[in-house]
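User: I've been trying to design a sequence by hand for this structure and keep getting stuck. Would you show me what you'd pick, starting by listing the structure so we're on the same page?

Assistant: Good idea, let's start from the same input. This is the structure you sent:
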């Protein structure tokens, strides 16, 4: 599949279903906004597929940039990791190709995805262009299980180990464990914790809903950063998520952390996952507005 970027900025969104072959996008300047709406490992709800598109368009309104929507929402399916991977792989290969094209044209990818499983493709593609990047992974969970350690069989819980080459997803590797910074985790399986410890992954837990910024900067060590955030890292008091874990970060804590990062180091890509869109506009709009405020350091960085 070929993606061609022209110099003409479109005034409307571009929507593509995977498997269409060659397609054309236009983007005159950074950032490049992508909504990943296709099924990856959506077990219980389809809200994340809708949520990805909503956040992408809200971001577009703030940055006056077009949105590329990949895939079409479908019903949730409670599949084990192997079935999920087999079903999602064609779509994820297309996603990886798009990220390759975006980064190959030196654009800044801003990705909104339904599930963390999409990072099997997005981060693998990004690392082909920026192998020097560290990955900040903000999530209530470690997502550092393997097929051998997982107690649930959930594909989204073993993304980082695939990227590290601890098992073969077929979608790419390129990430060393010592370049992962886990932030805000508070629900880690025992076997997963053993893997984190064994492979020397940095783990920064929250204290009273906040992250130690100096510890974060020390862990980054001046390296460029790919920033991943799952909405469940935020306390469910503030944001809906499919996998809820209490005692999370506040939106203000995330906003402050982003501000610290963009002021200190190069941000090479951003992705947000797992936003469970409430069913009505009245419920959605204030939450989306709160998320946009939380992400505002990105708007400033790209103006």
């Amino acid at each position: 599949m070929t993606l061609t970027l022209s110099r003409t900025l479109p005034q409307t969104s571009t929507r593509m279903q995977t498997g269409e072959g060659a397609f054309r996008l236009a983007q005159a300047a950074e950032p490049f906004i992508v909504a990943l709406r296709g099924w990856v490992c959506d077990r219980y709800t389809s809200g994340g597929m809708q949520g990805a598109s909503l956040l992408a368009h809200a971001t577009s309104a703030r940055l006056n940039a077009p949105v590329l929507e990949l895939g079409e929402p479908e019903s949730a399916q409670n599949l084990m990791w192997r079935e999920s991977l087999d079903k999602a792989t064609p779509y994820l290969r297309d996603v990886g190709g798009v990220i390759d094209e975006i980064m190959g044209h030196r654009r800044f990818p801003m990705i909104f995805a339904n599930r963390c499983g999409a990072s099997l493709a997005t981060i693998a593609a990004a690392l082909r262009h920026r192998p020097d990047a560290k990955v900040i992974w903000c999530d209530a969970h470690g997502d550092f299980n393997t097929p051998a350690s997982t107690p649930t069989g959930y594909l989204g819980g073993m993304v980082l180990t695939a990227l590290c080459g601890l098992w073969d997803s077929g979608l790419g590797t390129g990430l060393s464990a010592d370049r992962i910074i886990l932030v805000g985790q508070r629900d880690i399986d025992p076997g997963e914790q053993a893997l984190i410890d064994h492979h020397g992954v940095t783990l920064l837990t929250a204290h009273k809903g906040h992250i130690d910024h100096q510890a974060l900067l020390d862990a980054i060590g001046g390296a460029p950063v790919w920033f991943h955030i799952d909405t469940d890292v935020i306390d469910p008091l503030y944001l809906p998520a499919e996998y809820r874990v209490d005692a999370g970060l506040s939106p203000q804590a995330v906003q402050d952390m982003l501000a610290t990062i963009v002021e200190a180091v190069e941000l090479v890509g951003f992705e947000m996952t797992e936003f469970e869109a409430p069913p009505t506009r009245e419920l959605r709009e204030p939450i989306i507005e709160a998320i946009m405020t939380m992400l505002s350091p990105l708007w400033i960085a790209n103006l």
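That's my pick for every position. To get oriented when you compare it with your attempt: The longest strand covers residues 267-273. Residues 1-12, 18-29 have pLDDT under 50 and may be disordered.
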